[in-house]
């Protein structure tokens, strides 16, 4: 799951249940605010955290994300109405990704759905959507509770996730099955997640147990904390767009008079297939399908730096701009997202150099795990696209 854009105008962000542990572990003491919650940018160094994520396992405070419990006889149908995630088709223990769309088929947000029992789901979204959820549940046998303030959430991901959790005494938790239990009378859950290309587990537990769980994992395993700056590199390498950074959510775009984006325009058409059945925004999406005005693409830039808003050129003509970027240690170049005109969609581009330098540097469209799913989906449009569209663990 991807964090939304960082807050700009929040003077006094709230602290997550894991904040005392996070603050103690953060040697760099660099912070930001997401959804009104304090988040660590760096713990030790970006290079150390990146290497741990690639070779071992890392821990991330996922408290700034928003979570809802969804239960009742119509829970699956409600989620299928609210989002494009294939909730009704999930077996107990399975999870899937999807999108929340507005009536015009424009992207409101990303969503991950986990089925913990026949009538109990947990959904995770980058930002709160209380009003939209209230409208979607009308006339349905479903109870939806915002549990964000009641729980702590800790992500553990990387190639050694299972070993780290096992060493901490959580042998029944793994990266393939979502499960629920009760701890001190409060429902807890473990669900598979994927941050970028790295599989892992999100542990959701009572906020009163936050420090206990953190210490248990840190003392008995080799897990290393990871901050937002390193998570951003992994996100860009995976090709996953960030709401509020790479595209404007439909609700906010409408208020500001800007243009919203379709799933195709942000590279996530595979998360909203029109053959999945009815979901909110499906009719509007069908009318817009195949006619993108813009494209959000991943680029590898032949330089050590760039800047947000840098101009993107193709054949000497401006094609768009950079929306987010980071230096990739594994690729030895800058990786970035660019919002371009659909008419300029191709392989090779040039990026304007940041001041005081002049000129441009070469860039090439980057193949990522997300773009591979999008390509597979596009190639299978005429047949069964389930393998390409379901993020099912």
Automatic annotation (TrEMBL):
Substrate binds at residue 202. InterPro entries: GcvT/YgfZ/DmdA (IPR028896), GcvT/YgfZ_C (IPR029043), GcvT_C (IPR013977), GCVT_N (IPR006222), TrmE/GcvT-like (IPR027266). SUPFAM superfamilies: Aminomethyltransferase beta-barrel domain (SSF101790), Folate-binding domain (SSF103025). Transmembrane segments: none annotated. Residues 295-353 form the Aminomethyltransferase C-terminal domain. Residues 31-249 form the GCVT N-terminal domain. It holds the Pfam family GCV_T_C. PANTHER family: AMINOMETHYLTRANSFERASE, AMINOMETHYLTRANSFERASE, MITOCHONDRIAL. This is Glycine cleavage T C-terminal barrel domain-containing protein. It comes from Hyphococcus flavus.
